[in-house]
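INTERNAL AUDIT FORM
Audit reference: QA-55
Scope: verify that the stored structure record matches its stored sequence.
Auditor: D.O.
Record contents follow.
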Amino acid sequence: MTAAPAPPGLRLAYTQLRVRGFRWFVHASLQHLRARWALRGASTLGTVRLRGRARLVNDGSTIFGDRVRLDGTIVPLDLYCGPGAVLSVGDGTFVNYGSSIGALRSVSIGRDCDIGQYAIIMDSNQHLTEAHRLPAPAEPVVIEDGVWIGARVTVLPGAHIGRGAVIGAHAVVRGFVPPRTLAVGVPARVVRNLEGFDGDR
C-alpha cells in the first residue's frame, strides 16, 4: 500500500525549504500570513507575499494571482476597488512601496509586471475639471503581461500598456503604449523600440 502524494503546495514549500533554507522559509511564511490578514477583504487571494503594510478597500471584485509580491515597508500600499468594479493583479507581479491603485470600473494588471515606488494607477479622475462636485466617468485601465513601470509614474484613465513595454520614471501615461517599447515623459511618448532587446522581458 502506497502513501497518498503530498498536496502541490506542501511539495513546493518543502522544495523551497531545502533549496533556500529555514530562515528564508520562516520570513516567506510570515509574509504570506501578513498578506492574508491585510488583504482579507479580497475576492480571490492567491499565494501573495506582503512586506510592510497595505490598505485594501474592496467594494467590488479584487483578484490577486499567485506569487504576487507587495512591498509596503517604507510607505503603505493603497488599494481600492469601488462598487461593481474589478481590480486584478496577475501572477508573479511585484508592486513597490507607496503605490496607489484604484478601480471604479476596471484596472487589470497582467502577469510578471514590475511597478515602481509611488506609482499611481487609477481608472477615474474622481471629478470633472469644470465641476469639482460631479464625478468623472471611469475608463478601464489595462496593463498587459511583463510591463515595467518606473518610479512615480501616473497611469491615467483609459490607458492601455502593451505587453513587455517599459515606462520611464515620472511619466504620465494616457492612451495606448505599444508592446515592447520604451515610453517616457509627460505625456508619455515612445522613444525606443525594444523588439531587438535580448533580455528576459
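Auditor finding: record pair retrieved intact. The helical segments are 8-20, 22-38.
Action required: none
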